[in-house]
Amino acid sequence: MSLRLSTVILPVDRWHEGGRAKWQRAEELGFHAAYTYDHLSWRSFRDGPWFGALPTLTAAATATDRLRLGTLVTSPNFRHPVTLAKELISLDDISGGRVTLGIGAGGNGFDATALGQEAWTPKERADRFGEFVPLLDRLLTEGTVSQKGDFYTAEEARNLPGCVQRPRLPFAVAATGPRGLKLAAKYGQAWVTTGDPKLYEEGTPEQSVKALRGQIERLGKACAEANRDVAGLDKILLHGFTPDRNRPLESVDAFVDFAGRHQELGFTEIVIHWPIADSDFAAEQPIFEAIAARAPAQLL
């Protein structure tokens, strides 16, 4: 299977001052998909412009024709399944069925306490995620849903006419732990990882490849337990968080080498960040565009 190449565009630009142009350029360059982060703010960008993910994707849907669109990733940190489902159905309709929902358990970032709550423990995040995903699945596939859970309740929530994509828009589940991998195996059309975060600072690319191989093996076991063929699940690597850092974006050859090693592991899609100057995602725009234009043909 050929490797798909996608990008993630952080929502840091005003729409009429460069935002629209990036999404349209992503389509022109032939990217399979363009995603954005679903945060209220994020890391070093906290004190600068940062726009909402779903309005941004809605605008991108009206500015493009073929490009798939999605989040990497949405989480329960500040989302509720009932309201999220309504917005996703609307976005899927506006885009003509081009939306993928990247979804994860969330973390301890700024989103975790922005609504005034205490940050959840890893167990609490896993517990909530384990309830969030199945309820969202129901809300996107059934016309009316009532369910009372420990964390999330739906009372006659109506979601007609449902998604354009049937039975619903695809989920790309971000997970590395056993509970999350089970959710990916049961509900995901794709699985997402950034690699092993413990290796980012002092690990090596070789150690990262070994860790990713282990993650895919555990995903395979989770799929087997769910009576599902792991080969039917897309495997997405969000680049930029492995020990390779941004080095693969220094040339087309460097990227093809990086992507080829991960394609051999079984990844079907690699997502690279649209360059942002003076940030962890700084890269030369001409080289980035050359990678988009030339690398996929070398990864067939």
Walk me through this protein's architecture.
This protein is of the alpha/beta class. Helices cover 37% and strands 17% of the residues. The chain contains 8 helices and 10 strands. The strands form 2 sheets. The protein has an 8-stranded parallel β-barrel, surrounded by 5 helices. The longest helix has 21 residues.
SSE diagram, text form:
Elements: E1 4-8, H1 19-28, E2 33-36, H2 53-63, E3 68-74, H3 81-95, E4 99-103, H4 122-141, E5 144-148, E6 153-158, E7 171-174, H5 178-187, E8 190-193, H6 205-225, E9 234-238, H7 252-265, E10 269-273, H8 285-294
Parallel strand pairs: 1-2, 1-10, 2-3, 3-4, 4-7, 7-8, 8-9, 9-10
Antiparallel strand pairs: 5-6
Helix pairs in contact: 2-3, 3-4, 4-5, 5-6
Question: What attributes does this structure have?
Answer:
37% helix, globular, two-stranded antiparallel sheet, 300 residues, 8-stranded parallel beta barrel
- How many helical stretches? 8
The N- to C-terminal Cα distance equals 7 Å
Q: What general form does the structure show?
A: globular
Residue share in helix: 25-40%
Give the radius of gyration: 18 Å
From N to C, what is the helix and strand string? Answer: EHEHEHEHEEEHEHEHEH
Mean pLDDT over the residues: 97
**Major pleated sheet:** 8 strands, parallel, barrel
Could you tell me the strand content as a percent range? 15-25%
| Class computed from helices, strands and strand pairing | alpha/beta
Number of strands: 10
Record the strand order, biggest sheet.
Answer: 1-2-3-4-7-8-9-10
| Low-confidence regions | none
